């Protein structure tokens, strides 16, 4: 699949590695930085979604998305992302990703609003899929980061996703240029996606990054051997 991830904010929280490890399937290990595992919320706008050889359709190919994820390595030491949930503003996209990649997508009422330096994200899961699942965030974007530090690279430079497809651990390659990162300030956050995923609610402010976006290609999944 080809698409562009635009107006993306990364909100990262530290978690005990043993807590995150208990949530992962066999074959994956929690990846750590600075002595901790990390969980991230990433609201953004998905644009130009299409498979190879098919043009993007105006209504179907542009919609908001919000991901809840952590960082892992497989038994071969390959780094990647494990998704706890993915919310999409289009039902066909959510169903298609569940069927073709086995990813835990939810259909949600969503919006991404651009207001100068502000990005305002809204997400409400449709009942009865998961009552109470929501995420509202207001973020003020700042100047570019000239040189992303090690934490920013660890948390954003990920080029593989892992999934369980028909009970089998699988992975897919994700290709995109390095994120052009900016500073960001969180004005407001009201979310329950962490809690409804079965994780303790964060007890400290998140580390933030923002990016105007990059083009992305996601390959087919392959069993992890």
UniProtKB/TrEMBL annotation:
Identify the Pfam families for this entry: DUF2071 (PF09844)
From which domain of life does this come?
A: Bacteria
Q: What is this protein called?
A: DUF2071 domain-containing protein
């Amino acid at each position: 699949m080809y698409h562009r991830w635009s107006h993306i904010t990364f909100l990262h929280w530290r978690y005990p590695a043993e807590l995150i490890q208990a949530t992962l399937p066999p074959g994956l290990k929690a990846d750590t930085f600075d002595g901790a595992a990390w969980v991230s919320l990433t609201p953004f706008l998905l644009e130009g979604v299409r498979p190879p050889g098919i043009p993007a359709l105006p209504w179907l190919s542009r919609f908001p998305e919000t991901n809840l994820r952590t960082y892992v390595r497989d038994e071969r030491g390959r780094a990647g992302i494990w998704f706890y949930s993915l919310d999409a503003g289009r039902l066909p996209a959510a169903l298609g990703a569940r069927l073709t990649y086995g990813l835990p997508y939810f259909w949600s009422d969503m919006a991404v609003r651009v207001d100068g330096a502000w990005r305002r994200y809204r997400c409400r899961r449709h009942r009865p899929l998961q009552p109470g699942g929501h995420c509202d965030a207001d973020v003020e974007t700042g100047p570019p980061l000239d040189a992303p530090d090690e934490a920013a690279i660890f948390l954003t430079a990920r080029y593989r996703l892992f999934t369980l497809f028909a009970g089998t651990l699988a992975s897919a390659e994700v290709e995109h240029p390095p994120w052009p990162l900016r500073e960001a300030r969180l004005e407001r956050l009201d979310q329950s996606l962490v809690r409804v995923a079965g994780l303790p609610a964060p007890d400290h402010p998140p580390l933030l990054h923002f990016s105007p976006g990059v083009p992305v290609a996601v390959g087919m999944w392959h069993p992890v051997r």
